[in-house]
Amino acid sequence: MRETKQKTAILEFLRSKRQHHSAIQIYDAVREKIPNISLGTVYRNLGALIESGEIISVETNDKCVFYDGFIADHAHFVCQGCKGIFDFDMPTGMTEEMKKSGFKVSSEHLVCYGLCSECAKNTAQ
After folding, report:
1. Tens digit of each residue's pLDDT (9 = 90 or more) over 74-112
2. What ranges do the domains of the chain cover?
3. Helix axes 5-16, 39-51, angle to 10 degrees
4. Helices 23-31 and 39-51, axial angle in degrees (round to 10)
5. 18, 49, 65, 98: which could form a disulfide with 103 (CB 3.0–4.6 Å)?
6. For the structural domain made of 72-125, what CATH number should be given?
């Protein structure tokens, strides 16, 4: 994939934040550096960055997509209450079982859905 200032700005933004951002949030942030960038350019670059393995995406139950510049193997928890996305270390042993069955695991990405501790506490009251 060709290096462009738009792609570089998007990747720098995502890697500088240990959070998950929507395309609109990325667009708004990158527009501060590149005022004439279009939303279509952001979406095209996000797709290319996912395809090249430089970022990952996380989809919520309501089909909203968020982007993550932290690409080391890790799990996500998506809260169905506050819509927060939380990072966790991958459970150990999961891919080992797959490998024993003959699967060749190239990367791990697990997404769990439910209520975060704060939303669960508020629901119980």
Report:
1. 889 999 999 899 999 877 777 788 888 898 877 777 889
2. 1-69, 72-125
3. 70
4. 120
5. 98
6. 3.30.1490.190
pLDDT digits (tens, 9 = 90+) for 3-23: 889 999 999 999 998 899 999
Rounded CA gap, 74 and 87, in Å? 7
Query: How remote is the C-alpha of 92 from its chain's centroid?
Result: 21
Nearest to 64 by CA among 50, 49, 79, 42: 79
What is the SS3 string spanning 18-65? CCCECHHHHHHHHHCCCCCCCHHHHHHHHHHHHHCCCCEEEECCCCCE
Q: pTM of the entire structure?
A: 0.82
Q: Kindly report the backbone phi and psi dihedral angles of residue 16, in degrees, each rounded to the nearest multiple of 5, phi listed first.
A: -85, -10
Report which residue type is found at 43: Y
CATH architecture of the domain formed by 1-69:
Orthogonal Bundle (1.10)
- Tell me the two tokens of residue 36: 């004439």
